[in-house]
């Protein structure tokens, strides 16, 4: 298939006519959001949505998030409990997905047959305008299943060029981590995926929230609340180990024998040999670590190193969300 790569400067004049037409005509478009790049299809066109699963190699029971341009559009497809209305208005548009009782005839293929739907209002100007033009866009991350989520168009091209109609290139995504997911369909809000809106912020906003065990351990669960949680994500092809500071000396010993590399924040440069070190960001600005995480994992896979070691982070704020992804991507160093 011929893939159009369309450059759109998010800070300039944005024209999404071409990708909007492709989406309305049963095609697939990869587009930037403030979290990661998404692989979109018209949510009300089951045939188009089916193509997403085929192209990504994604399991059918893993539901997609529906992207809309406004709160009013959200209410067209989902029941928004009155007590949460003002909170949702405050948090949107933004990097957070709400799981709500579904209202209209969203095809089963989008929600994996559930009676709930995940809805997000992206703040990224290109994503938001595209949603405005098309209405309802079902979109998972624009990577092949099992690969790290794409945070720039090169990563999308690597995975999907020749397989979809259009890839929009708007540079790096600002957050670099998939949206926070919170389930508001039960009595107490349940965090299904930590993300750019942190657990601490959600506790402040909602008061009581449930944090299921699988969020902390990132273990695979057989019958999870968020169906996607049972799938392994983000694993590099090469062996990657996460280690704590107390094991640093052991890791340095291994580096003397093996062709390995350490991934760590800039502040820790002095601990490691220069040509065996990849900077992932700075502890001073923890969001930089989230932004670089997936690209660093892809770069590591493409590097000449045989084995990788990544420093574990303190689990608070955005770094709690980063650690949630890392626990899936890396094995813990014993
Ligand atoms: P992705 O966009 O690839 O990060 O995947 C979207 C994720 O959203 C899925 O893996 C699910 O875990 C979650 N999700 C979407 N819709 C629902 C829903 N109705 N109920 C629970 N989780 C959902
Ligand atoms: Mg994904």
Give a short summary of the structure.
This protein has twelve helices and 16 strands. The protein is of the alpha/beta class and 334 residues long. Strands 1, 2, 3, 4, 5, 6, 7, 8, 9, 10 and 11 form an eleven-stranded mixed sheet that branches.
Outline the secondary-structure elements.
Blueprint: E1 4-7, H1 17-24, E2 29-31, E3 38-42, H2 46-56, E4 65-67, H3 71-77, E5 78-79, H4 85-91, E6 96-102, H5 108-111, E7 116-120, H6 125-134, E8 137-139, H7 153-160, E9 166-169, E10 180-183, E11 190-193, H8 199-206, H9 213-217, E12 240-243, H10 248-257, E13 260-264, E14 277-279, H11 286-302, E15 307-311, H12 318-329, E16 331-332
Parallel strand pairs: 1-9, 2-9, 4-7, 6-10, 12-15, 12-16, 13-14, 13-15
Antiparallel strand pairs: 2-3, 3-8, 4-8, 5-6, 6-7, 10-11
Helix pairs in contact: 1-6, 11-12
The protein binds adenosine monophosphate and magnesium ion (MG).
The secondary-structure class comes to alpha/beta
- Looking at the structure, the CATH topology of the largest domain is DHBP synthase
Number of helices: 12
Helix content: 25-40%
- What's the rounded overall pLDDT mean? 95
